[in-house]
Amino acid sequence: MNKTIAVIRGDGIGPEIVNEAIKVLDKIAEKYGHTFTYDDVDMGGIAIDKWGDPLPQAMLDKCLAADSVLLGAVGGPKWEGLPGPQRPEKGLLRLRAGMGLYSNLRPAKLWPQLAQASPLKPSIVEKGIDFLVVRELISGIYFGEHKTVEENGEKVATDVMLYAEHEIERIGRIAFETAMKRRKKVTCVDKANVLDTSRLWRAVLHRIKEEYPEVEYGEMFVDNASMQLVKDPSQFDVIVTGNMFGDILSDEASMLTGTIGMIPSSSLGDGTRGMYEPIHGSAPDIAGQNKANPIGTILSAAMMLKYSFGMDAEAAAIEAAVNKALNDGLRTADMMAEGCIPASCSEMGDAIAARL
Ligand code: IPM
Ligand code: MG
Question: Which reaction does it catalyse (predicted)?
């Protein structure tokens, strides 16, 4: 197959981790007879520096013209003082919205080799951690109106949280469909004791659940869910939730599995074109030092092969190669443990490519 991949290296450790994912993709192309063509896209801080805009229209157009998008990370202290609409993060939000990517899947799965890196007690970890956060990605409070005004001699800020039924419906369906391929359990996480948007989520999900009698459906307030995640993560299979709650809980979820550096994500809309990125950020403190863990990005590339290109065997091969590298004791700094072999970012990429 011939596929064009828009590549957004972004800021901080972004370029380093994306280069390792490309190394792995090139090896896949060679082994399986595919051609991957990469089209570089500037987004985030680098785009602000070069073009004065975190996502120029021409860059969004390149992403829309590609078969899929691979992203490292955006943002950093250099651009933190900028007003909201000009920040690197805004480029990412506009890209997600511009591509219609409403469905964000963030798997939290414990790799047995990293069990001791989990901050949870062994008695909890032993029960297993394998769940998926299905996060609504292009609506909710991140996309409502943001404004700050002067009132009675002080500043007053508002951020509007808005959900329309169709936005809940489409992400709800993804959650149930995904659960059918897993352990058939969906937990809606919300704040329905306080928020109207959450009550609407529940009403819509109640309608959908009637179509999936095999799926065990439950609901949990987000404060309780954040506690249950550390108390007993084995109770979760698919968590479906809004944009902000999903953002927060997926960071918590990732840490349970040992390191946020291992977690990939997919963002999809109605078609097969998606965007794939690790869930960690640009880690400016270690940028340019060849220290970052590239596995979250490499596994994101594997998700791209599977979900956007239908290359299931190739995706499985990448996961198996990651598994082998971990079995062989290779660890980047974020997951280093006694008796293991320290690997830099590029050494980890080489090791995974070599095991394909
Ligand atoms: C994430 C990030 C982004 C988000 C930021 C960078 C806008 O935290 O992908 O989780 O909040 O969605
Ligand atoms: Mg986040």
Answer: (2R,3S)-3-isopropylmalate + NAD(+) = 4-methyl-2-oxopentanoate + CO2 + NADH
